[in-house]
């Protein structure tokens, strides 16, 4: 169902880039959970635009206003609702898009889907701005999950040809993730960040954009979470991760690399560690067997396509004259979505885990 | 929810490898749809084991028995239910697994999840045998979709290092897919099949297994199907595709390759074709923008891990003595799941489209 | 799931009596539907308090603020969200309720359910005030349904021993319903209203309250809507009607009177009317057979309990000292909920039909 | 969704009166629950026809065959599936119904809903026979609930004008319910049974049928179960109870009698009992406040319409000639459904509680 998600929690997201506000409702949270608004702001700031040259220079006041669900800073068990006002919007930039759909955007498909009634200003309900709601909701869940010993973190795994040091699938630790999960443009290796920034700057100077991959880990998730078939960790994670605009691939553990692997190499051998806990020597499974957690770190990667809004002239159609046309998109856009999408991936993981653990 | 799937149709799958039967219920199908049982048998035979050396030599009588939902071969609108009896089972092969969980299998995670009550015989409800139910249900949906002009087909895209010719993302046709979608070990290039069979045979002779990738296409899906956010084509497809055991990655269109692409390269330019239809010159989007179909072929790939059951000795644990242990799995197993999983991927795509189009 | 409802539309309601705002999100509405805000205000005014002596004298500014989903007054297909600010709240009235739960209210059960974290001010998320959100969402749906030829209306069927003239189950017309569905304290017979007002005034003067029954009809619903078993009209209607606080019974058509009826009397004989349409001579079925509409008027009644907040001293417990206690509730309360609940019942019916028709 | 039900458990029912079998799948049951098949047979026998003159003399071999979900008589956590073969069917009795829809039956509405494709033999998927699946699934849940201290029982509250002694809303006990819940034609007062049997016999001799009311109680349900708004006990119970064919009303506690009550009378005063537990002196709430259990007995009643199949000539239409027609239904039918529906109501209550407690 479009903008509602979850089986055990219910997430409902609304709004568009240029509506009065965007917002989020999160139902069935556990009661009596203290929520630190400052921690939420930290996460929202990581996603907010205007940081540096890797992102659009638009300034958005992403201050969430909680309308319900908290009393004296504590969850009441009733739906938690928050809105974020839309302020710095330039509606004139978008006047042309009903006629000339932008390649790589949802302008055309939304127009067919909604008989032309879709609010196209700033991408409307398809705007990446809506991920602010995911980050808000995820930031709430992360605080609850942390109290249950679960830590989530992500980094820019690749931007163009530049690659970061991947997580150690077996030993990635809470500390590793905490070192990442409050940073903007989180990476494991500072050198990788340099190279990535160079790729992004090159794209920007070319009036172009560049794609990338985000890797995310969750540690502290106990064994036995998830269900077979359609209730598996992978199913639940993918069902929300593909809700992040621009994601075109999701893989877990060794992911697509399993294609080249032998079973003897891919199988993760079980052993008892010094504390008498069952662990695996490798973690090609990404912490998931049969859809259910093994107790090892959960690991996934998402492929993020290059921002479709680019400054170069592109070929498109004129939907009124039914002829081919050219389009130059003006306005400010992110040359690379990856840095700002990192906290979104973490938030989605937090929501997925909250849903699975309720 | 574990073994139930779908928003507009409802799929419910039950049974285990060694229960009396496995079965499937499919609710909310359109009425008055003629269902050809012979076409269903063709699909089920493609998945059934015992074909050749690429697969287990177990023989399973995968004859579905329809219990309800059809009257004189036509859908009544009431739930369509079918069961497949379990016959050729060797229960003695599995007696040890409660104590020594097989690496790469769900034995350990299921045991934690279900407090040891899980039926471990043949993998129980986690068995790949359950995909017979998916193929049955998908084969029903495919006949309905074909009447609406939609054709689905898939091929072995990679097995180990051997690669098949990929689909032409723009021009893959109904005929291309029909040439594949009744074959066992479907490939676009006969040479690729040879190489793939060699990889599989090498693995088999090593008492090992090998992974691969399946590529699937659906043509004839009209533009405007799907919804934003969590109701997108990618979300719905992934939520069922990850229900196929052994799938560790799902990607659409250019998939993970978008990481290295510039926006100017990845964006698919729109144009009007000779029939006045909007099309795109490339199809990196895999036929999906903003979660909604563009009218171009839908394209996705799934990563299939190597069969975890291998003949080699492996390291595991003894859950009773809480010590490390070695395990040698006897019995007959597929050295590569890819050939038999091809019709399963097609079936999952059919179910996803049926759900989206209802 | 608590505060989310619907299979084909998704309704999400949030807020409490004394939170910053209450609000509602309605996803999957059809696009291109013009929504007249003035008609929404008419419905909300019918539910708003402060009308006359039958209702609480509290004044609530029930002005909905639409945040998204409409563009130039037309549905975009994206989630429609609206909030209603909470203004005239007297928090001090409710300070005692955590200790002394009010009989007939959710204070005690919510406290157990939410480990004492529930926001008890004004009943919190259990407050009848939340029905303003139902009325808003229903008023949106009614405008869409009217364009499809469907009209909904309700009246006070009973208040205490005073009874109104019931709807003619066979001939209740669009005009009959339109004469009711914009009025406060809607009744078919003015004499009945007089008697009902007398009952309410008597209760009010006794510092007490009185219950009643609301009868609701929907005309113009085509035959063939609904599904067997759990997808029936009755199931869907009841699942939302019981979301109205104070409802303790729901019946359709002849309802509980069927207990005393013979089959020969209860069965509604089919016949062809002058327009060649299948109709029934009686309508004991309330327009529903096998969960599916017959094309005759849909008829249901809901039992509304007397307002639990009364001025009289009542027996309760002290949850801190674990002793019995007495409680006198101060503040302003409705001596009878029935008049204000009429538009809520209509709204729930509209939402149910919208869900069934999507 | 038609024939699927539940949020935390998933119930899926399939089959028709004359299909090869009817069946049920129950997903997400807790593992490690011992299920006594004999207890299930006791419940199914209570619903089975052919007992005495109050019921149809058809003989149905309602022997459930478990296909999966149990291993050595214990739940595995995987979906529990069972089928019941259809044997003693007289297809010829129903040949006329596509043309002449039976008044009070779903023949006409199903025909419109499913474009004439519905399997009309014996009512198809709308047949009361499907309640055997509810009884099976409920009997499984009752065994699990009993281990958690919850007991369910019901009785014939009314048949025509004959009334049984109602449950004591405050003191109805586990023993009271156990005295009822294995009996056929369960009543509290033997005299009431006599009068009810007389009403049924009179209807039968008139080639007619008679309606009634069933009252059901559940004791031992702890306080704090259920949720506000649409997740309330009443919503969940009603959503499954209306899945029982012939139910036209559902009420809780004082139900429709609240219409005539003052708040001072209807409010249930809280007090501490001798064990320090919060209880209420009366139980007009039927154990539910704000949708959440109080810990007092849950009480509800359902109105059961007279069997629509009667021997008398009735008026209907000829759907082929589009003219009015007369119809005489042959075959064997229950003059009153109430006795056989008692275990069905109990089963539905058990399923609802299982869903709420998971």
From TrEMBL, chains A, B, C, D:
It comes from Hominenteromicrobium mulieris. NADP(+) binds at residues 47, 53. The gene is aroC. GO terms for biological process: amino acid biosynthetic process; aromatic amino acid family biosynthetic process; chorismate biosynthetic process. GO terms for molecular function: chorismate synthase activity; FMN binding. Belongs to the chorismate synthase family. Pathway: Metabolic intermediate biosynthesis; chorismate biosynthesis; chorismate from D-erythrose 4-phosphate and phosphoenolpyruvate: step 7/7. It is an enzyme of class 4 (lyase). This is Chorismate synthase. It holds the Pfam family Chorismate_synt.
């Amino acid at each position: 169902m479009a903008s509602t998600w979850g089986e055990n929690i219910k997430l409902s997201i609304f709004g568009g880039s240029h509506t009065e506000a965007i917002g989020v409702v999160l139902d069935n949270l556990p009661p009596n959970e203290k929520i630190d608004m400052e921690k939420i702001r930290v996460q929202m700031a990581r996603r907010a635009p205007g940081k540096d040259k890797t992102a659009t220079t638009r300034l958005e006041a992403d201050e969430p206003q909680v309308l319900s669900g908290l009393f004296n800073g504590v969850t009441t068990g009733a739906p938690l609702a928050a809105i974020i006002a839309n302020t710095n919007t330039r509606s004139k930039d978008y006047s042309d898009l009903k006629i000339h759909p932008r390649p790589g955007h949802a302008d055309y498909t939304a127009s067919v889907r909604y008989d032309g009634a879709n609010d196209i200003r700033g991408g409307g309900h398809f705007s990446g701005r809506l991920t602010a709601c995911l980050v808000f909701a995820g930031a709430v869940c992360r605080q609850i999950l942390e109290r249950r010993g679960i830590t989530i973190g992500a980094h820019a795994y690749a931007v163009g040809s530049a690659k970061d040091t991947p997580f150690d699938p077996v030993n990635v630790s809470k500390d590793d993730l905490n070192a990442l999960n409050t940073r903007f443009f989180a990476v494991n290796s500072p050198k990788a960040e340099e190279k990535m920034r160079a790729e992004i700057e090159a794209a920007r100077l070319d009036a172009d954009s560049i794609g990338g991959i985000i890797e995310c880990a969750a540690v502290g998730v106990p064994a036995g979470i998830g269900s077979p078939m359609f209730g598996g960790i992978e199913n639940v994670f993918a069902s929300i991760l593909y809700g992040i605009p621009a994601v075109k691939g999701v893989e877990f553990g060794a992911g697509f690399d399993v294609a080249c692997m032998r079973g003897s190499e891919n199988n993760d051998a079980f052993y008892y560690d010094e504390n008498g806990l069952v662990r695996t020597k490798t973690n090609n499974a990404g912490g998931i067997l049969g859809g259910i957690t093994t107790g090892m770190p959960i690991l996934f990667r998402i492929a993020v396509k290059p921002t479709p809004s680019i400054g170069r002239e592109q070929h498109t159609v004129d939907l009124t004259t039914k002829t081919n046309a050219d389009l130059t998109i003006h306005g400010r856009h992110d040359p690379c979505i990856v840095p700002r999408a990192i906290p979104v991936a973490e938030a989605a993981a937090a929501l997925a885990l909250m849903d699975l653990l309720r």
